[in-house]
């Protein structure tokens, strides 16, 4: 009988433990990769895999593709921008380069901090005055700060508006899309309306919405300001179509065998929709929601510019009307801000899509 080498067995066991640890590490990296993709940080996966010793040469190629190439493209864009911008003269002077735009971004940040400090000082004075009035047995007075909104406040106003309009669009579009997908009669009724109203520009909707809202709300004393409601409804009217169309398509594409099973089981309409229709159609519904949110964000900026409603669109228009030497750089800051926020809004919707569906769409 051959004796077993105890040293060999110990080394083999140690190697097996090492491989098991590596396998667990790669499992964690693969799980994290899903969220890296959601956050736009998919390049972190090959970095972690290379650090863990998984074919470093192949991972270096992935790092170059996912991180190196985008950085190179952005660097080339900034270089060309910096070279060509001074050569273009406008009524406001030369087109600002990246350095000037960054300088104005810092100026907007400092201005926001200064305005926030003024507001805090005003609130402190009002609180002190009210304490004095209460001590004298008088009613305290409510006084609002009348200073101009900061750049960050205008960003937040636009984000609130687009989400409000987007939520209204979702509440309207998803039920109608389900009805159109389940019923040929509902589809025949809705299809002409979709084809007629889907191409309508927000610039055409805005005057109609403004007149109707102004007629129904004579003052700004309601729960929401009129300007906010006007912008939100305009967003709704232009952004509901992608969700409606994709929902109808997703519902209509459900496997016919599943529909037959629901008939055999004699499911009522509510159970059929919640247990069968929605889970099957969710990937396409979320695709429509992502498209709708992107459309809504673009529509909102145009609506704010035309109607002079508070938000980033009004900021751009005010700077254009201002005509100072710094206005063009501030407008470009706003343009970059709009693009970055649009990207982040899409990432938010993709994160929700990843939580509720199994689709691989990015």
From TrEMBL:
Q: Where in the cell is it found?
A: Cell membrane
Gene Ontology biological process: transmembrane transport
Instruction: Answer whether the UniProt record assigns the keyword Membrane to this protein.
Output: yes
The UniProt keyword set, sorted, is: Cell membrane, Membrane, Transmembrane, Transmembrane helix, Transport
Question: Which residue ranges does UniProt annotate as crossing the membrane?
Answer: 64-84, 162-190, 202-218, 230-255, 276-307, 327-345
Q: Which GO terms describe its cellular component?
A: plasma membrane
| Gene3D superfamilies, per the entry | MetI-like
Q: How does it sit in the membrane?
A: Multi-pass membrane protein
Identify the residues that the record assigns to the ABC transmembrane type-1 domain, covering every copy.
Answer: 155-349
The record's annotation in SUPFAM superfamilies points to:
MetI-like
Q: Name one Pfam family in it.
A: BPD_transp_1
Q: Is Repressor one of the keywords?
A: no
Among PANTHER family, the record links this protein to: ALKANE SULFONATE ABC TRANSPORTER-RELATED, MEMBRANE SUBUNIT, NITRATE IMPORT PERMEASE PROTEIN NRTB
Report the sequence similarity comment from the record. Belongs to the binding-protein-dependent transport system permease family.
- Protein's UniProt name: Nitrate ABC transporter, permease protein
User: Which organism is the protein's source?
Assistant: Candidatus Rhodobacter oscarellae
Q: What is the lineage of its organism?
A: Bacteria, Pseudomonadati, Pseudomonadota, Alphaproteobacteria, Rhodobacterales
């Amino acid at each position: 009988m051959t004796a077993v080498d105890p040293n060999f067995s110990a080394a083999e066991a140690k190697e097996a433990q090492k491989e098991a640890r590596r396998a667990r590490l790669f499992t964690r990296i693969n799980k994290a990769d899903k969220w890296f993709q959601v956050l736009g940080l998919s390049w972190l996966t090959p970095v972690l895999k290379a650090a863990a010793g998984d074919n470093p040469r192949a991972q270096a190629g992935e790092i170059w593709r996912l991180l190196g190439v985008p950085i190179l493209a952005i660097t080339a864009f900034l270089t060309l921008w910096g070279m060509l911008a001074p050569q273009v003269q406008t009524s406001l002077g030369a087109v600002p380069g990246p350095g000037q735009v960054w300088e104005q971004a810092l100026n907007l940040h400092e201005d926001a901090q200064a305005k926030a400090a003024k507001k805090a000082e005003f609130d402190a004075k009002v609180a002190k005055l009210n304490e004095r009035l209460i001590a004298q047995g008088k009613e305290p007075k409510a006084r609002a700060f009348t200073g101009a909104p900061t750049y960050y406040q205008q960003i937040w106003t636009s984000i609130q508006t687009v989400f409000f309009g987007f939520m209204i669009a979702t509440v309207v579009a998803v039920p109608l899309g389900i009805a159109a997908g389940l019923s040929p009669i509902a589809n025949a009724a809705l299809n002409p309306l979709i084809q007629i109203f889907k191409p309508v520009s927000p610039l055409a909707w805005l005057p109609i919405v403004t007149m109707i809202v102004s007629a129904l709300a004579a003052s700004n004393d309601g729960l929401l300001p009129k300007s906010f409601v006007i912008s939100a409804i305009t967003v709704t009217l232009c952004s509901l179509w992608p969700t409606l169309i994709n929902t109808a398509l997703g519902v209509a594409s459900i496997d016919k065998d599943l529909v037959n099973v629901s008939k055999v089981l004699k499911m009522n309409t509510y159970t059929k929709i919640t247990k069968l229709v929605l889970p099957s159609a969710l990937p396409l519904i979320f695709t429509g929601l992502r498209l709708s949110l992107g459309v809504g964000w673009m529509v909102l900026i145009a609506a704010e510019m035309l109607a002079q409603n508070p938000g980033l669109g009004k900021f751009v228009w005010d700077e254009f009307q201002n005509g100072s030497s710094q206005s063009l750089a501030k407008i470009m800051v706003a343009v970059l801000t709009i693009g970055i926020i649009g990207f982040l809004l899409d990432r938010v919707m993709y994160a929700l899509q990843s939580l509720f569906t199994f689709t691989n769409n990015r």
